[in-house]
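User: Predict the full complex structure for these chains.
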Amino acid sequence: MPRVRIPPAELSSPPPAGYRRPVATFRLQGSKVLAVDVTGDAVRAKNGSMVAYEGRMAFKKMSGGGEGLRGMVTRRLTGEQMEVMEVRGQGTCYFADRASDVTVLALHGDKLCVEASNLLCSDGGLRTGTTFTGLRGGAGGTGLFTTTVEGSGQVAITSDGPAVVLRVTPRYPLSVDPGAYVAHQGDLRQSFQSGVTFRTLLGEGGGEAFQIRFEGDGLVYVQPSERNTVGGDV
Amino acid sequence: MNASAVHDPSTLPSDDNVNPYTFCVDLKGSRWFLQKGKMIAYYGDVSFQGVGHGALDRLVRTSFHSPMHAGDWVVAEGSGKMLLADRAFDVNSYDLDEGNLTVRSGNLLAFEPSLSLKQSIVPGFLTLIGTGTFVAASNGPVVFMEPPIRVDPQALVGWADCPSPCHHYDHAYLSGVLGGLRALTGIGGASGEEHQFEFVGAGTVLLQSSEALLPERGTGTVPHEPGVPGGGAPHPGHGSGQGSHGSAPRLPGQLGDLQRRFGL
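Assistant: Here is the predicted structure of the two-chain assembly.
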């Protein structure tokens, strides 16, 4: 089948040499386990996702997702709670979550939006926060808020089944089922598409009544499985 | 494998798998039947309409003959590339050439309208007849077997060209009251494999490599007619036609099907 491979360097490489801070390198051990090599630096990972480690590691629970008091309050208020631990040490640490598939991606100063439950691990130098998603989250059954990751470094996200990475360009907008959406990165506008007509009310709906439409320039990560959504069977 | 391939409409395959769990349908002004909620993303201009939409009457007349399942299916129409997936199950496409294939209703994701869909006589299964492509899901890769073969009911995905799918019970059910009780209650040890589906004759049987089933879609009931299998349980006192020897109303406390095992 025709398939263009982006050289791995573009997607998941550690930040360029000359970077002062020691940087953790993320790699995949199989498709469901993430291995992170750390040399004295720190990564943030979902609480309790460590499955094994080699070397010396210290695990520290970070209240409120490591975003300080303000982050803690915001997360409590928005329901986008994230149990995060900081992993620091020398060696290799392995992370996994419910045998879900892991995708490693690199941020170069751009922003990634991901559900808190799908965020497995991020470089210690990245900033995380919460943002309002509008109707998209409401229909996706994932809440009205989502987690953002900004900065430069590597991030690992989880998905039910290997995620498909879809590129959005101004020429090719993309529509995604809210239940299959995992994350997106880049400069994307999202709008909410609804195909609800009077037929839906008569019980003859199209079955795909709600979609998120992405326009702009960026990447969208989609999982080959659907969460139960409010609009799922309409 | 790292998901390092970034796809856009020009690199997505045309009517082929993107990865073992995702299938890409290339719509060029054509139509596809698709089970509700199996579309995960699409590029381009695609619309989804429920079966029963007025404009689709002709299409439905020629290729959709299952009133029971009509509520679960939609027609995708337009141009663009559409990705299908289901609960991270393996997804495969199959080409039928003037053939017929019967598949578990929950496993069928989509089919071309050049095929026609009918309900199988075996409850919970759908039969596709004609020429064209369809997409089905399975938990683990599909294994193709030649009859004669006996298969575990949970591992069965479907079959092609086989004239005789039937139930097979192991001999133990005959061996007295204790055998019946054992099979019924599991006390004293039941292997859980006393019941199989048996296929003989020419054809192909499709099996999945696990016993996890896709949840059955709520399909309603077939018309309540004499001679239609699965047409609802015969109601006590209403025993018209269903039970061949006039099923007597069941007394409270009566042991289910044990009576039949002993020919009572």
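Residues 1-12, 198-206, 230-234 of chain A have pLDDT under 50 and may be disordered.
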